[in-house]
Design brief:
By secondary structure, this protein is an alpha/beta fold. Helices cover about 45% and strands about 20% of the residues. The chain is built from nine helices and eleven strands. Helix 5 links the parallel strand 7 and strand 8.
């Protein structure tokens, strides 16, 4: 598998890298949370801008993104606006969503951007092209908070993400049955071993799916999301506890 290097972080080798979301509502909360991350197990910081109360004012978004860049230093910076239809806090019209992401990509402040697959093929491909021109890596994502699609559907979505320009395809699903977690893990393994040239990210949400957040090194998911304080999605594990478990699994795999 090819790896992806973002600043000093190599995604796709060793244990899954820990991404911690920043979910503050005000600029002060956001910057305070970012400052706290530098003292945690976070290896990647995700700004969930849909939580930001001033997100409709793009100039304030860019100003806050610049301040975040200064605080985060060499910690890789992922920008995400998660729409309500995919579990986020706010909605934007498609044109606004595209404009916001393009503005942040072109700002020079971020290292990665999360683009939702169901924004539309043309929009996703255009944002991916813009991001790559600005040396920004692209996560194309899909979130299903109601169910777990079939293994074939999960694979099909991730393949489509790659076709549209994703550096890393990401799928998050909600299990209704224990078997759903197995379906997600099986799809992850098949995707990582047979179709993806680089890293993939998958997770099964809620308490039932926690194992998927821990077993990425075994099944092929290269990034896992952990919480420092407030969770941004159901089933997120405290980042400190998460690292301990990931390290145990990594050591066991290394020792055969």
């Amino acid at each position: 598998m090819e790896t992806i290097k973002v600043r000093n972080l190599v995604i796709g080798e060793g244990r899954p890298k820990i991404c911690v979301p920043i979910v503050g509502k005000s600029r002060e909360e956001i910057l305070c949370a970012a400052g706290n991350l530098t003292e945690t197990e976070a290896e990647l910081a995700e700004w969930r801008a849909d939580w930001y109360e001033e997100v409709s004012d793009f100039s304030k978004v860019l100003d806050t993104a610049g301040a975040l860049r200064d605080i985060l230093g060499d910690l890789p910076f992922l920008f995400t606006f998660r729409t309500t239809k995919e579990g986020g806090e706010k909605s934007l019209e498609a044109e606004e969503y595209i404009e916001l992401n393009r503005a942040v990509i072109e700002s020079g402040y971020i290292d990665l951007v999360d683009v939702e697959l169901f924004t539309g093929d043309e929009a996703v491909a255009a944002l991916a092209e813009c991001a790559h021109a600005c040396q920004v890596k692209v996560i194309v994502s899909s979130h299903d908070f109601r169910k777990t699609p079939s293994r074939e559907t999960i694979l099909g979505r991730m393949k489509r993400m790659l076709e549209l320009g994703a550096d890393i395809p990401k799928i998050a699903v909600m299990p209704q049955l224990k078997e759903d977690v197995l379906s997600l893990l099986a799809a992850t393994l098949e995707m990582s071993e047979h179709y993806a040239k680089g890293p993939v990210i998958t997770m099964s949400m809620s308490g039932a799916g926690v194992v998927s957040r821990l077993a990425g090194e075994t099944f092929g998911s290269a990034v896992t999301y952990g919480a420092v304080g407030k969770q941004s999605a159901p089933g997120q594990v405290d980042a400190t506890s998460l690292k301990k478990v990931l390290d145990v699994i990594h050591e066991s795999l290394q020792n055969g």
